[in-house]
Amino acid sequence: IMASTAAGKQRIPKVAKVKNKAPAEVQITAEQLLREAKERELELLPPPPKQKITDAEELNDYKLKKRKGFEDNIRKNRTVISNWIKYAQWEESLKEVQRARSIYERALDVDHRNITLWLKYAEMEMKNRQVNHARNIWDRAITILPRVNQFWYKYTYMEEMLGNIAGCRQVFERWMEWEPEEQAWHSYINFELRYKEVDKSRTLVMVHPEVKNWIKYAHFEEKHGYIALARKVFERAVEFFGEEHISESLYVAFARFEEKQKEFERVRVIYKYALDRIPKQQAQELFKNYTVFEKRFGDRRGIEDVIVSKRRFQYEEEVKANPHNYDAWFDYLRLVESDTDADTVREVYERAIANTPPIQEKRHWRRYIYLWINYALYEELEVKDPERTRQVYQACLELIPHKKFTFAKIWLLYGQFEIRQKNLQNARRGLGTAIGKCPKNKLFKGYIELELQLREFDRCRKLYEKYLEFSPENCTTWIKFAELETILGDTERARAIFELAIGQPRLDMPEVWISYGQFELSIDSDDRIQRCRQIYEEANKSMQNCEEKEERLMLLESWRDFEDEFGSLANKERVWKLLPEKVKKRRKITAEDGSDAGWEEYYDYIFPEDAANQPNLKLLAMAKMWKKQQQQEDEEEQEEEEEEEEEGAQVFYILFKKTNTTSVCFNLFISCNYSPKVL
Questions:
Q1: Measured at the alpha carbon of residue 654, what is the angle toward residues 649 and 655, in degrees to the nearest 5?
Q2: I need a labelling partner for 614 at 20 to 30 A (CA). Which of 150, 474, 572, 661 fits?
Q3: Alpha-carbon distance 195 to 198, whole Å?
Q4: Mean pLDDT, all residues of the chain
């Protein structure tokens, strides 16, 4: 034992001298010493005596003593986080959660980047069912240390165990924004798959675009029955890696996938494509698989696929050279519609409609708008996706500059689509918007036709009223409106409509008058013929000053036909006297630059009142009568000469029969001045 001297120096103990330095007969190894020590329990210290606390005062003294010890240890070395953790865990064991929380917070002030400290802190809150406190800790931890995946794993696991699926998904989405390692993405994908959210599980390959992830993505789509999507994933992978970073394993997986789908021609094309581009020394596995495939399924060439591929390439080149060549887009779309899946067709349609005409003139939009029409019809009839069809129509209608021009066919097709979907309210809303934004004759006609088919006659009346407000000079609208009222049996309304129509100053047209007359004639009443005749008379008076003489002639011819069927002889003669005379005239033609371009002939109509008011016309009529008389006199004289010649021929024949000499008869005829024609 060491002892201190009076001078404060230490005495060195004496070392025992070994007298016999020869080796012992029995050698003892270190392993044997340790075994004997364990068997005899030489190193086990007896446990400290158990302290029994009998009252609160002793408990407080115990707590004070332990806390003082912990605080002393922390004071000696604040950076030893294990002291903080032991301290907090001891407080937790006493159910002093608030004190333990305070200790953890003090420890985080010392070292906020210590992962174990955050984990122990959050685990304490979770064990004590303090869910909101635990969420708060996890949020702080992933905010300060977003690259520590353990925090994210435990946070998402806690939320999922609590049944907070939306919250768990939100945490995953926050995590994915940091683009973590692949395993994190797989955890997210497995989470979404557990809750049948397949569409949200397709994002891994965009962050980690390695070949193995593309293959996993395709197998994922195949596993869930999305064959077209799985094929598209492989195609996207091939496009992504291109020819510079081409991978043998990718093409092998692609070919095996197509082989499972019995697409043998696709398999052959894939193998050939890959073998043409991958160096031979790197394509041993590829060549081996291709050989096995050919042995199983034979060596048949996909001629049609080759042709289609070639045509697709040609169309791609055409639309790249001129994106506004809409005819090329139409041909391309017909090809892909007959050969590829819906997603590929949609992609081509989206590319096509993205090429908006550069000029906002209707003539430049006429071909372009049919891309939208074909797109909508494809979605409705082929894909049978009414919601997407509706989106296509709405996007098209939003794109058209309605203030400058519009396309009535788009509005009408949209309305008819909504009718087929049994959504009458949307159809009426769309057509009503069309009439409000850009009223057109075709829109009104289509909307009225729709309501007529639905037998909504009150709506038809309102639409006709709006139509007439928009275009009061359209005689067809007035006639159709009156015909509707006639069909509905409301003759008074029909008569009132005709009266309003003929009262329009801009509507001085014979069609309305003729329809009005036919309407009155169709009514079963005693005075229907008189009413019809009265309308024709009023129409004739109204159109006497009409510049378009053909229109008045049309009216008079209709009146003539009416009188021929229902009128008396006096009425017929009266109408015949009103008919004009057709004369041929000539007029000068002037070119656009003002120069003389010659003369042209045309027909004019001269009505009786026009002839009475113009003296020249009277003189012309008298000249025509004189010429006609002269022609009649000439015709009479010619007839007399012909009669004389016939008589002479008869005399010649009689003389010839009696004398039987031609010369005598000939001299007789010459002396009588008969013409050679008679001879």
A1: 100
A2: 572
A3: 8
A4: 75
pLDDT attached to residue 302: 38
Q: In degrees rounded to 5, what are phi and psi of residue 198? A: -70, -40
Half-sphere exposure (CA, 13 Å, Cβ side) for 515? 22
How many degrees, rounded to 5, is the angle at CA 127 between CA 121 and CA 131? 80
Which phi and psi angles does 278 have, rounded to 5°?
Answer: -90, 135
Amino acid at 263: E
Closest-CA residue to 608 (of 583, 570, 580, 572): 580
Length of the chain: 679
For residue 180, give the 3-state DSSP assignment. coil
Res 306: pLDDT = 39
Tokens 């010659």, residue? 598
The DSSP secondary structure of 584-620, one letter per residue, reads EEEEEEE-TTS-EEEEEEEEEEE-HHHHHH-HHHHHH
Res. 176 pLDDT band, cuts 50 70 90? confident
Question: Is residue 165 scored above 60 in pLDDT?
Answer: yes
202 pLDDT higher than 60 = yes
330-359 per-residue burial string, b: 16 or more CB within 10 A, e: under 16: bebbebbbeebebebbbebbeebbebebee
How high is the pLDDT of residue 607?
63
3-state secondary structure of 490: coil
The helix (H) or strand (E) run that includes residue 522 is helix 510-522
Number of helices and strands in the chain (H, E): 34, 2
Q: For strands 581-590 and 596-606, give the pairing.
A: antiparallel
Position 453 scores a pLDDT of: 81
Burial class (CB in 10 A: 0-12, 13-18, 19+), 322: exposed
